[in-house]
Amino acid sequence: MAQKFEVSGLDEYKEKLESLSSSGKTIIAMFSGGKDPATGQSWCPDCVVAQPVVDKAVSQASEDFIYVYCSVGGRDFWKDKNCVFRTDPSLKLKSVPTLIKVGTPQRLEEAQCANPKLVEMLFED
């Protein structure tokens, strides 16, 4: 199974990537709407649908993978056109959920993240 980490915000995400950069493993990052502490569910309906699909792929992935779950924060923060996740040159996120194979152009967005075949393909070497 892949190693799993959970971070919140762009700074934590970048710090985690920096700490994992020498691992030699493939890093898959999931960007999702923040979770309501009371329910544990994201404010983003597409994220809620995609999460079990991604979780299953992570549980079946080899030890050559690292999975980083990153919360993009609350709905109002995300919807701002100047949101750091949207404007960061290394990410340029357009939607959540977004699943990225770090260091490659490979990414899945929105409903693609709920497609088991597509998600499994991202976790292949």
Automatic annotation (TrEMBL):
A cellular-component GO term for this protein: cytosol
Main localization category: cytoplasm
Keyword tags: Cytoplasm, Disulfide bond, Redox-active center
CDD domains the UniProt entry points to: TRP14_like
Keyword Disulfide bond included in the entry's annotation: yes
Top-rank taxon: Eukaryota
Coiled-coil regions listed in the entry: none
Compartments where found: Cytoplasm
GO molecular function, one term: protein-disulfide reductase [NAD(P)H] activity
InterPro entries: Thioredoxin-like_sf (IPR036249), TXNDC17-like (IPR045108), TXNDC17_dom (IPR010357)
Any matching Pfam family: TXD17-like_Trx
Domain Thioredoxin: 7-125
UniProt key word Cytoplasm: yes
Family affiliation: Belongs to the thioredoxin family.
Protein name stated in the entry: Thioredoxin domain-containing protein 17
Species this chain originates from: Hyalella azteca
Lineage of the species this protein comes from: Eukaryota, Metazoa, Ecdysozoa, Arthropoda, Crustacea
